[in-house]
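User: For a benchmark we're assembling, each entry needs the component sequences followed by a predicted structure for the full assembly. Here are entry 17's components. Please fill in the structure.
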Amino acid sequence: MTQDERVADRQAAEEMPWGEVTPDAARRLLVAAVEAFAERGYHATTTRDIAGRAGMSPAALYIHYKTKEELLLRISRIGHEKALEILRHAADGEGDAADRLAEAVRSFVRWHAGHHTTARVVQYELDSLGAEHRPQIVELRRRSDAAVREIIESGVRSGEFDVPDVPGTTLAVLSLCIDVARWFNTEGRRTPDEVGALYADLVLRMVGAEPRPAVAQK
Amino acid sequence: MTQDERVADRQAAEEMPWGEVTPDAARRLLVAAVEAFAERGYHATTTRDIAGRAGMSPAALYIHYKTKEELLLRISRIGHEKALEILRHAADGEGDAADRLAEAVRSFVRWHAGHHTTARVVQYELDSLGAEHRPQIVELRRRSDAAVREIIESGVRSGEFDVPDVPGTTLAVLSLCIDVARWFNTEGRRTPDEVGALYADLVLRMVGAEPRPAVAQK
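Assistant: Structure for entry 17:
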């Protein structure tokens, strides 16, 4: 796979987060579950509601998912895996620490703005997952956190950044981007790209780097 | 009322947001509703659940609240009024723009960390309010936004701040503080005061001001 193909692949994945879910019926059920959880909350949603939204019978649902929690776990895992993929891609990318941090913020914001319904379910229903499933999600979050911390630490080492509290600043950067999912639909008069550019600038200020123009899209 | 009494009053209000709700039974029901909504979501909670948590009968609940939505509206209004009060107090306070912005962030973060359960209900169940009730909450949010924007604008005018996008930066500052309610309980190894101090420093960087030590508590 060439670099261009990898970029195209990543952009497609960013646009269609459920592409990996097969067969088609399983994917339709997942999309229906995201909508139902976002509208009514996990606990107020029944598997019957989800099957109905997908135009299927409850019996057909059970072929693909044994429980409602299995649906939430699948949604949560895919959402967190995409988040990690986006942040890892930025951390492993070209350029200096400021380029990589700006790219992490831009793409992470774009994802939370563009997929705010999914992101809300993924972020706000975490406590609805049972204790046996939560550790795998917590581990994905730990790795997302590590990707951002790694960029900030490298900027501190190179002298590009001035950050007195690296773990606290890492937390704040991720938190700022994640909250886009809450307000984006209701108050936003900006495109996901515009919010991404604004936030990248604000985050570079938070780490004491010079703001810079957006890197041209490859 | 002296200045000291006003400060004491405000601190008491920050600690006990439901103090204004009387009689006692109405307050107990409100606290029970916050817990139930936070745990299971608004739509999965019945008035029977809420009455049960408060140790009362459903009939006793209807003396105080005609509908479940009336409870959510009351919670949401009180929460948003406290947020506005905190931000107005900072905007109208002493000191230069950086002092006032730092105080706004510190006290707003402290509220979201210290009352994260209430704050989650207030922030994440907004869409559960009917169309006839939402405008009063939207108006409170508009005024909270205006309080922060006012501080930032005054810092830009005085030359203390360098902010190319005032509305966008205002939104980001509020958003950063609000998201504290999401992560505070689960990942926080810091006290509300510590998060407030860290965030005040990060926000001063966002607006291009010099960081400064915390203002001594009066």
